[in-house]
Amino acid sequence: MAHPHIHPFLLTTLKLTDTKTSIMNKLLSSFLTLCFLVLVFDTPTSNATGRNMVDGIFLPSQKNEQPYRTGYHFQPPSNWMNGPMLYQGVYHFFYQYNPLAPTFGTIVWGHAVSHDLVNWIHLDPAIYPTDEPDISSCWSGSATILPGNLPAMLYTGSDSTSRQVQDLAWPKNRSDPFLREWVKSTHNPIITPPEGVKDDCFRDPSTAWLGPDGLWRIVVGGDRDNNGMAFLYQSPDFVTWTRYENPLAAADSTGTWECPDFFPVPLNSTNGLDTSVVSSGSVLHVMKAGFEGHDWYTIGTYSPDRENFLPQNGLSLSGSTLDLRYDYGNFYASKSFFDESKNRRVLWAWVPEKDSEEDDIEKGWAGLQSFPRALWIDRSGKQLIQWPVEEIETLRENEVKLKNKRLKSGSVVEIEGVTASQADVTISFKLEDLKEAEVVDTCSVDPQALCTDKGASSKGVIGPFGVLAMASKDLKEQTAIFFRVFQNQKGRYSVLMCSDLSRSTIRSTIDKTSFGAFVDIDPRYDEISLRNLIDHSIIESFGAGGKTCITSRVYPQFLNYEDAHLFAFNNGTQSVKISQMSAWSMKNAEFTIDQTVKSAT
Questions:
Q1: Nearest to 86 by CA among 343, 421, 332
Q2: C-alpha triplet 212, 215, 217: angle, nearest 5°
Q3: Angle (CA) 582 583 588, round 5°
Q4: Pairing between strand 137-146 and 150-158?
Q5: Would you tell me how many other CB atoms lie within 10 Å of the CB of residue 60?
Q6: How far apart are CA 483 and CA 570, in angstroms?
Q7: By the 8 A CB rule, do 193 and 221 touch?
Q8: 140-191 pLDDT, tens per residue?
Q9: Are 9 and 339 a contacting pair, CB within 8 Å?
Q10: Which end of the chain is more exposed for a tag (fewer CB within 10 A), N or C?
Q11: Could you tell me if 12 and 64 are in contact, meaning their C-beta atoms sit under 8 angstroms apart?
């Protein structure tokens, strides 16, 4: 079974989920992420694009017939999807795609290209199951640019016995900036499951990095006896790989690790770094792993001479409420890559559906990508910051502003003048008196459970206050993204951020699980800011400048997106002030089909 993922500029690995059948059934949109390392291959190859399946590429029907389809988030034209990379100034997105149905099935690598991470051109699928090492499906992987500017793709193949192996492919024609055709190495499979690892629990090779000793390194996700780990492999030539005696990272009782990612981040900078940069006094490393439906990460130091990664502050990848996550909502199988054109690290993730499989079949599509995010380390060095890439601002129009607006207890104020179903909204709240904040021992509480227990309709003292998105005029349907301030017995304040989906739709078949996390800010000195990217059935929320992120899928009953409304609200007993707000309607991104596509001719 496999998990799909999408990621820009790099290929993210396909995930095969053996522990959660229900999640598997929802893998309606996978994505691969490609990272590039430099190496030259002179080995025999086989064609990666043998088309023995239906390859129809069709643009979706009109928006009024598809109210849940997004306007500026990447989605496959139809059916089931999945990943990306940068080559000769062109961003490539490779994704897990079922060309036969909008459900999980035999997976090929869908392919789209972009010059700006906003507007996309759909191409024919890049890699099909053709040979024994991937005959059942072509799962997730990562790209590395090898010496000589050669993109090399490592990916997980599922063979005729459903064994997960790691395969290699590269472009057939490097002079084509769209890289339309790919070939596979006849050395495949280049890596097979190690002893003690189940055949279906070994997947998702990472982007490679080059060590000071001249050896390439990758990690592959897996587990032994339900203990998740990132297996470390080394190679002198990118073809022959040897497993290192110890995993680079591991944790007990987490199940299989999926889509592991490992990369450096500079301190005191918003820039990104090439994956091969080693740790130093000013550089740390991030280890990310996906399990239990979430992407967890830890920050630490990496010593390539000892192949040792040491997390800081005692934090691990155990899946506890104290561990760090990229996003505390519906966000999985992410992949990052270094975008050297803008000296930044970019993160993209798969956002699965939360309606039923029957709904997906009726829609004719399933799954989408989060909007690409720039990624860097916070000034404290304790966590990562995420923020939509700047290119998104090209879609903004018709700005609406609001300043110094007081929200009294019980206030609900409509934000008019924007297309509420497709908007970018930034808002900052200023608090006045914190002394009466509710007392909660936040060190021992699960923030998601707290958001469920104290939702938007539960009156507090300082909060809940925030935004009601994708709301009906009568507010019977609404998605509340809000904050609430607590203090512990010692007077230390905590800020809770929630995405309350309990009233997001009156439809009974939708998963309306609420999400929540604490935000690392001190409300005595800092205003509390919130940014929401609203796009029909997805809302990406960024608290405190990207310190805490929550992504939600919503499916309100009202079918005409013109009926959507946007409000600011305060359900706390104390007033709060909107110090400033800017909201923009968002234009549609352009999604077109290349004229060379087989089904377009």
A1: 343
A2: 105
A3: 145
A4: antiparallel
A5: 16
A6: 10
A7: no
A8: 899 998 988 899 999 999 999 999 999 999 999 999 999 999 999 999 999 9
A9: yes
A10: C
A11: no
Give the Cα separation of 172 and 294 in Å (integer). Answer: 36
Note the pTM of the prediction, 2 decimals.
0.90
Residue 167 tokens read as 């395969």
Q: Are 599 and 128 in contact (CB under 8 A)?
A: no
At which residue do the structure tokens 């490539």 appear?
92
Ordered DSSP codes for 101-163:
-SSS-S-EEEEEEESSSSSEEEEEEEE---SGGGSSEEEEEEEEEETTTEEEEEEEEE-TT--
Please give the pLDDT value at position 49.
56
Using CA atoms, how far apart are residues 421 and 100, in angstroms rounded to an integer?
30
Q: How far apart are CA 141 and CA 35, in angstroms?
A: 9
Does 22 have pLDDT greater than 50? Answer: no
pLDDT exceeds cutoff 80 at 573: yes
Structure tokens at 293: 């439906």
Rg (CA), the chain: 23
Q: Which amino acid is at 568?
A: A
Judge contact between 202 and 157, C-beta under 8 A. Answer: no
* SS3 readout for 257-271: CEEEEEEEEECCCCC
Q: CA-to-CA distance for 351 and 355, rounded, in angstroms?
A: 12
CA–chain centroid gap for 446, Å, is 23
CA distance 369 to 77: 13
Per-residue model confidence (pLDDT) at position 20: 33
For position 105, what pLDDT does the model report? Answer: 66
Give φ, ψ of 581 to 5 degrees: -145, 140
The stretches of 294-369 forming alpha helices (DSSP H) are 357-363
For residue 448, the SS3 value is: helix
126 contacts 596 by C-beta, under 8 angstroms? no
Residue 235 tokens, joined: 């190679």
User: Is the Cα dihedral 77, 115, 328, 528 positive or negative?
Assistant: negative
Sheet holding 365-366, edge to edge: 29-30, 79-82, 365-366
